[in-house]
């Protein structure tokens, strides 16, 4: 079983739609959680951290469910510029980050 | 401020040749990571350093791969001899250990093709 699992997609949504991605992780000792974004042929960049209480950054909302070992990312009012691959990332309180293989989002006009 | 710098950006080489990838981390960062990304396997951590010391090289695929960090501002990843299955994008990332969030800053990557 992979340490971090994501639906690879692609998710094809129209502009203005709301889309949600899910991610599960296998190690219950995981301490920190993140969403990174990777544009085509570019490097990954931190989108947002995920806190136990849930957190929001503009149109983006991240949720964590420790009991189910489940992380989600919700994007409201999708823009064309949101088209990218979204990587779910888990940390075991070491320096290492464990990356999922990513969920691809394509927003169309 | 300059981000993580990698060179070369693209490398095409023949099987059996030696390949050296270079990385300059962000100034002041004390952790450096080498990753490999392919469509099939996603982003895999190969090795990482703290304060120039290799901490975990369990992701290095085999003895053909080696990495060094002679000082805080430079690291190399070497493949000798290279094989077609080494074709991938190799990313270097750095972070400031001890800061909350463990955010890693990635370089633009080196796209390696071994023919």
Mean pLDDT of chain A: 93
If you compute it from the alpha carbons, what radius of gyration of chain B comes out, rounded to the nearest whole angstrom?
13 Å
Helix content range of chain B: under 10%
The N- to C-terminal Cα distance of chain B equals 36 Å
The largest pleated sheet of chain B is described as: 7 strands, mixed
Strand content of the residues of chain B, in percent? Answer: over 45%
Q: Secondary-structure element sequence of chain B?
A: EEEEEEEEEEE
- The class by helix and strand makeup of chain B works out as mainly beta
Largest sheet of chain A: 6 strands, mixed
* Oligomeric nature of the chains: heterodimer
Sequence stretches where pLDDT stays below 50 over 5 or more residues of chain B: none
- Number of H- or I-type helical stretches of chain A: 0
- Name the biggest interface: A-B, 18 and 21 residues
- Helix count of chain B, per DSSP? 0
Strand composition percent of chain A: over 45%
**Cα shape of chain B:** globular
Looking at the structure, what is the overall shape of chain A?
Answer: globular
User: How many distinct beta strands of chain B?
Assistant: 11
Helical proportion of chain A, percent range? under 10%
Low-confidence stretches of chain A: none
């Amino acid at each position: 079983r992979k340490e971090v699992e994501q639906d690879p997609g692609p998710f094809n949504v129209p502009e203005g739609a709301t889309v949600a991605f899910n991610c599960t992780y296998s190690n219950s000792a995981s301490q920190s959680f993140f969403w990174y974004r990777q544009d085509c042929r570019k490097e990954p960049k931190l989108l947002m951290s995920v806190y136990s209480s849930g957190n929001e950054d503009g149109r983006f909302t991240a949720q964590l469910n420790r009991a189910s070992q489940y992380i989600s990312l919700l994007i409201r009012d999708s823009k064309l510029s949101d088209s990218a691959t979204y990587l779910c990332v888990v940390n075991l309180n070491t320096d290492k980050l464990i990356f999922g293989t990513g969920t691809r989002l394509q927003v169309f006009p | 401020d300059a981000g993580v710098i990698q060179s070369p950006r693209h490398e095409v080489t023949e099987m059996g040749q030696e390949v050296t990838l270079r990385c300059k981390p962000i100034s002041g960062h004390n952790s450096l990571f080498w990753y490999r990304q392919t469509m099939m396997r996603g982003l895999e951590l190969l090795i990482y350093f703290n304060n120039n010391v290799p901490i975990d090289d369990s992701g290095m695929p085999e003895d053909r791969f080696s990495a060094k960090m002679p000082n805080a501002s430079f690291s190399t990843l070497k493949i000798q001899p290279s094989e077609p299955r080494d074709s991938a994008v190799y990313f270097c990332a750095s972070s400031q250990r001890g800061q909350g969030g463990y955010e890693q800053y990635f370089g633009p990557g080196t796209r390696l093709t071994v023919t």
